[in-house]
Amino acid sequence: MTTATRGAEVRLTGLGISYERGEDILEGIDLTVRHGEFVAFVGPSGGGKTTLLRLVAGLLAPTRGTVTINDRSPAEARAGTAVVFQDPTLLPWRTAAANVALGPELSGASARDRLRIAAERLALVGLADAADKYPHELSGGMRMRVSVARALAGSPRLLLMDEPFGALDELTRQRLDAELLRLRDANGWTALFVTHSAAEAVFLADRVVVLGGRPGQIVGEVAVALNAPRDDSTRESEAYFEAVREVSRLLRQRGKDDGR
Ligand SMILES: Nc1ncnc2c1ncn2[C@@H]1O[C@H](COP(=O)(O)OP(=O)(O)O)[C@@H](O)[C@H]1O
Ligand SMILES: [Mg+2]
């Protein structure tokens, strides 16, 4: 890891939110994500995972408590934060390169810099040859890679990912997960990654945080100590299975308590 201290630190303190006078969605979330740490969040559908990411992205304001990113507000840290949603949301009339270059273009980068950034980031995700292709000419996995390249265009310190590979087939997802870890090792950003898969969470994360209950709270954490670098052999290891079992157990336990 070349720049392990480059990733942002995220601190959630007594965090809670309700949407416009509705029921509480999240309550009493206390969590510190360390510089360069990769934290995966799992929990039931409708449990507030997307809401949590939107709070950290500064797209929503908390009802209670605070979110800080390197001791600043999410709005102040916006330039260093990138978000990848489940839907790649590429602009269909722009090539892959032009989609990746959108952020730099909006922030006034020169045409030369935009080209360079787009080429570099596409190469990072293994799509150097697809720069001139339009989204409809790409597979689902390739579109998701472009989406990740676009998120990396601004050299973020914090990457927020909301079930980014959830719609892809298992094999493609496993490939992208492994690529994502390589990118993290090379770039050192901090990651908050939401998934409904205990196996994906364990493969990716330094720590898995399990959300549950109504309102949503942190019901448990599993620290994941696996040999680095993680690759296909990781998925065969006893430590990996044990961590997946532990995450699944926490999810099930909580599901019973909730009556879900
Ligand atoms: N904009 C919104 N307005 C009102 N309620 C919302 C809004 N977004 C999400 N919710 C509600 O908040 C709860 C948590 O949603 P969400 O954060 O999307 O959960 P998850 O991502 O874990 O599936 C759900 O009950 C959902 O209906
Ligand atoms: Mg969601």
What's a concise summary of this model?
It contains 8 helices and 9 strands.
Description:
With 260 residues, the protein is of the alpha/beta class. It has two domains: 1-77 and 158-260, Rossmann fold, CATH 3.40.50.300; 88-156. Helix content is 35%, strand content 22%. The protein contains eight helices and nine strands. The chain has helices at 49-57, 96-100, 102-106, 111-124, 140-152, 170-187, 198-204, 238-258; strands at residues 10-18, 24-33, 38-42, 64-69, 81-84, 158-162, 190-194, 207-212, 217-223. It has a six-stranded mixed sheet, sandwiched between helices. Strands 2-1-4 form a three-stranded antiparallel sheet, covered by helices on one side. The longest helix has 21 residues, at 238-258. The model is unreliable at 1-5 (pLDDT under 50). Bound molecules: adenosine-5'-diphosphate and magnesium ion. Magnesium ion (MG) binds at residues 49-50, 162. Residues 49-50, 162 line the site of magnesium ion (MG).
